[in-house]
Amino acid sequence: MAKEKEFQVTKRVRKPVKRPSTKSPIKIDTALVRPVGAPAFPWTDELEIEIADYIATHPMSLKKCYENNPHWPQINCIFERIHKSPKFGDMYLVAKQQQVFAFNEESINVLDEVKQDPDLVPWGREAIKQYNWQAARLKPRTFGDKSAIEVTQISHEASLDVLK
């Protein structure tokens, strides 16, 4: 007779499964996203001109411009329009280049603030560096780094005379 092995029957108990939280750890900026299924924004020439004029005259990012003008389309719609409409893309490019002069005025205002409160010197220095960097990228001929290249030309005969 074979020995019978005794098996102990145990119930399998399911461990609770950790479910992902309903709160998303990634915060999505609502200014950048159009609701799904929303109709396309009704663009007009007047709105395009208004957007370009506002950008050209205010030294701030497109997001800040959007926050100050709630009737504008969302930022991703503006970028889509820049991509799809060459006319508006050109207007936007010219507006960004003209915005450099508004950045220049803003840097003068920053200097005035720093003169009144010396504790703001590090902040003012960084702000002016940022304005100068943006100006150099948007209008390189006017505000870009100037580099002088000195070129001297020696005739072939003169070099042969030096070698003799």
Model description:
55% of the residues lie in helices and 0% in strands. The protein has 164 residues and is mainly α. It is built from seven helices and no strands. It has a domain of 100 residues: Homeodomain-like (Arc Repressor Mutant, subunit A). It is extended and about 110 Å long. The termini are far apart.
Describe the structure concisely:
The chain is mostly helical and 164 residues long. It contains 7 helices and no strands.
What does the average pLDDT come to? Answer: 80
Overall 3D shape: extended
Terminal-residue CA separation: 116 Å
The top-level CATH class of the domain at 45-144 is: Mainly Alpha
Q: CATH homologous superfamily of the domain at 45-144?
A: Homeodomain-like
Number of strands: 0
Radius of gyration: 32 Å
Q: Please name the CATH topology of the domain at 45-144.
A: Arc Repressor Mutant, subunit A
Total count of helical runs of at least 4 residues: 7
What is the CATH-assigned architecture of the domain at 45-144?
A: Orthogonal Bundle
Percent helix, as a range, is 55-70%
How does the major sheet shape up? none
Low-confidence parts, pLDDT < 50 over ≥5 residues?
Answer: none
- H/E topology pattern: HHHHHHH
Structural class: mainly alpha
Q: What percent strand?
A: under 5%
